[in-house]
Each structure stands twice: as structure tokens, then as C-alpha cells.
């Protein structure tokens, strides 16, 4: 059973560092045998949660299972309509079996109840090629899903990638949240909101179990990985915060900008989040896994986002960035088992260098995106009272780090980004 305690999640009364992989399209796109292989692979890497859309993911890659939560009618213009009044039992029978496979591996399902393309007024509602969910059908759908899935002790994302531009949008999500909470009061609830966005209606914010945000895939918006949790903490938000959608490895920059995010970019977004107040966990995504892409399959309906082609999932599952983020979890569980707290101190006059301490303030962790000497003039750590080590995030090797001056750490020989950990003697 998952619970919330201050800034952390707990599972069976032990600290639980949330490490989720993104597989929005699992229920519609993945064969049973591939699902088992995928779960085994991620479990071995150290992942303990999978983020899944209960409904059809609107921008998933093409699928050949032809299995959906409701009867579907396809139209000549490429759009499609669901009959939301008739639940497809076969679809949910299979989904339940897939969640059972997760349960056998002690992995937490993180389930999106209603992605924004199904809801009036959202940014995606103007681009979607599906019909929207009728308000009067929400209760029966949400009751059905939460009743079937509550035995798996899930986390629920009430929304997926949403904003809240209209009263009708809020009304829809109010209904989803209310019905879900009444049906499964023991589950953990939050809202997955759109990239670089942190405005959640107060009526929802006061009742969520943790705050979820996404720094997302916009090149100019990567600073939100640390800006959003810092701002939420400054507002007094005192529950867990998690970046549930940092940039995906090998996804292209959004809005048709040329370039793709590397494993290093993913590390930067992830470490920047965790050391800036979003310390309850982190999500990883691989471009080809979230949409479950096969070579030659269709992809993409969102002209405005303009993402380049995904990799085949057989390749994407082996992206090394997943190991890097699993290594982040390993470091946090080993060095900061009771969580870390952002210092909000600017190091070397550079915002991208992030740092946090433990509760006793006798251990300091610094994320250094680019190697350089580190000036600690504003910290109570020095050559006189502390030992330092550097962890190379490319090779995962650890070395002792020397001092250049009593309050300045020397530059190591690490050629990529690194973590520096100082411990008072």
C-alpha cells in the first residue's frame, strides 16, 4: 500500500523512491508476450512503476491489435468515434491481466483516467481526431475502471497532459476526480498537466496526494525542471513533487525544431528536478516506448507539437539513459534514504548547477552539468570539515575529489556531467 508522508512516498511503511517508465500506449499497442519482456527488462533495471493511459493514447503509434476500450467507428477523413456508452469487456479483461503481470513483479501501475483530448476546452481538444467524452458517461466509466483496478493499488493521474482553460474543462475533471475518489479512496491521486505548466485549480491542488508536473520537450523550457518545484516549495506546497514527464530520450525538440534529446539531456532534467524540490521520484521516457512504435507504423497527429519519428521499440528499450535514471534512484536510496532538501543557493553564479542536503545538513549533493571548479563560499562545507567524492554519470565510476582552496573544490577529470557528494567528518 502506498502512502504519503511529508515530501516522500512510502510503500509498506518504507520510503519509496518513485521511478516510472512511460508507456502510455500499453493497453492498446503491446502484445502479451512483448509486455512480459518489457516488464522484466525494466524491472531488472530498477524501475518500480509504469505510467499507462487507460484509454487510447491519441498520439500513439499505429497498432495492429485493433482492441479498444469502446466500440470504434473509423471515418474516411481519418478521424474516429467511440461509443462511450458501451464498455468493451475484452479490452479491460486484457488490461487487468497486464496489471496482474505488473503486480507479480511488484511494480506500481500509474493510470491516466482521462487524457486531455477527451475533454472539451483543452489545448488538445482542438487538434484531436476522436470524439470527446460525453459528460453523462463519465461516472459509469470511472466507476468501472477504478472498481476493476483498485486491487492493484494504483496511482491515478486524473488527467493527462491537460490545461484548465474553461469552466467546462474543470467540471469534467471535477467529476472524474470525485467519482474515482469515492470508488477507490485508498489510491494515490494527482493530475498530469501539460508541459512547463503548473497552474492547477485550487480545488484540486488541496486534495491531491502529490504534485505532478512535466518539464517536457520544448527546448527553451528545460529550466522548468528546477523552476517549477522551487516555485511550488516557495508557495508552501508541502507534499511530494515529481517531474512525471521530463524530456524523453531521443524525442525531437517540440514545435518542429531540429534536434533530439540525448541521455545527457535526460540526466540534466532528472537531476535538476530531484535536487530542486521534486525529490519523491522521477519518470523516464524513451521515444519509441511511450507510443510503442514498430518500424513502418504510423505516428503523430499533433501538428503543433511536431515530433520527429520514434525509434522502433526493440531499439528504444535499450537506450542507455534508462540505466542512468535507474542509477539516480540507486544514489538517492543509498545516500539520501530519507529524502533531500534543495539549498536554493546559486553555485558559481549558475542556475543550472543544482544542490540539496539531507535533513541533518551534514551531507550535500551537487549536480554539475559541465565540469568545473566548484565554489562553496555560501555553504557550511569546507576542506576542514568535509570529504568529497565525484560520481561520473557517464561511466558511473566514483572518485575522491580534492580541494583547490579551503572553500573551493578542484575540477575532476570527468568528461561529462557528474554528481559531487560532500560529507561532514
Automatic annotation (TrEMBL):
Pfam families the record matches: Apiosidase
The Apiosidase-like catalytic domain, residue ranges: 6-334
Protein name as catalogued: DUF4038 domain-containing protein
Species: Candidatus Companilactobacillus pullicola
Cleaved signal peptide residues: none
InterPro entries xref list: Apiosidase-like_cat_dom (IPR025277), GH (IPR017853)
Amino acid at each position: 500500500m502506498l502512502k504519503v508522508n511529508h515530501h516522500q512516498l512510502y510503500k509498506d511503511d518504507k520510503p519509496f523512491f518513485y521511478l516510472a517508465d512511460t508507456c502510455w500506449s500499453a493497453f492498446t499497442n503491446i502484445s502479451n508476450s512483448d509486455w512480459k519482456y518489457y516488464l522484466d527488462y525494466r524491472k531488472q533495471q530498477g524501475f518500480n512503476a509504469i505510467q499507462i493511459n487507460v484509454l487510447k493514447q491519441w498520439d500513439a503509434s499505429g497498432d495492429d491489435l485493433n482492441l479498444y476500450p469502446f466500440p470504434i467507428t473509423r471515418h474516411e477523413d481519418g478521424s474516429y468515434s467511440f461509443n462511450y456508452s458501451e464498455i468493451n469487456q475484452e479490452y479491460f479483461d486484457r488490461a487487468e491481466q497486464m496489471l496482474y503481470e505488473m503486480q507479480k513483479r511488484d511494480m506500481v501501475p500509474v493510470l491516466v483516467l482521462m487524457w486531455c483530448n477527451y475533454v472539451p476546452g483543452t489545448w488538445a481538444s482542438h487538434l484531436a481526431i476522436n470524439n470527446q467524452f460525453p459528460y453523462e458517461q463519465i461516472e459509469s466509466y470511472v466507476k468501472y475502471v477504478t472498481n476493476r483496478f483498485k486491487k492493484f493499488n494504483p496511482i491515478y493521474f486524473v488527467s493527462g497532459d491537460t490545461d484548465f482553460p474553461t469552466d467546462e474543462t474543470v467540471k469534467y475533471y471535477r467529476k472524474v476526480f470525485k467519482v474515482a475518489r469515492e470508488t477507490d479512496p485508498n489510491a494515490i491521486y494527482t493530475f498530469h498537466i501539460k508541459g512547463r505548466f503548473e497552474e492547477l485549480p485550487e480545488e484540486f491542488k488541496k486534495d491531491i496526494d502529490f504534485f505532478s508536473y512535466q518539464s517536457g520537450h520544448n527546448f527553451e523550457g528545460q529550466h522548468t525542471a528546477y523552476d517549477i518545484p522551487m516555485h511550488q516549495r516557495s508557495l508552501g506546497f508541502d507534499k511530494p513533487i515529481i517531474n512525471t514527464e521530463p524530456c524523453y530520450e531521443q524525442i525531437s525538440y517540440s514545435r518542429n525544431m531540429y534536434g533530439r534529446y540525448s541521455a545527457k539531456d535526460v540526466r540534466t532534467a532528472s537531476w535538476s528536478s530531484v535536487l530542486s524540490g521534486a525529490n519523491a521520484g522521477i519518470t523516464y521516457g524513451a521515444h519509441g516506448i511511450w507510443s510503442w512504435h514498430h518500424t513502418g507504423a504510423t505516428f503523430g497527429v499533433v501538428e503543433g507539437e511536431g515530433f520527429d519519428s520514434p525509434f522502433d521499440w526493440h531499439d528504444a528499450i535499450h537506450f542507455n539513459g534508462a540505466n542512468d535514471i535507474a542509477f539516480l534512484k540507486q544514489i538517492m536510496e543509498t545516500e539520501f534514504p530519507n529524502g533531500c532538501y534543495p539549498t536554493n543557493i546559486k553555485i558559481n553564479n549558475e542556475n543550472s548547477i543544482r544542490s540539496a542536503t539531507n535533513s541533518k545538513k551534514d551531507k550535500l549533493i551537487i549536480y554539475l552539468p559541465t565540469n568545473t571548479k566548484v565554489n562553496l563560499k555560501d555553504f557550511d562545507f569546507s576542506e576542514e570539515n568535509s570529504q568529497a567524492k565525484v560520481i561520473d554519470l557517464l561511466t558511473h565510476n566514483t572518485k575522491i575529489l580534492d580541494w583547490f582552496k579551503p572553500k573551493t573544490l578542484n575540477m575532476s577529470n570527468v568528461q561529462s556531467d557528474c554528481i559531487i557528494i560532500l560529507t561532514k567528518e
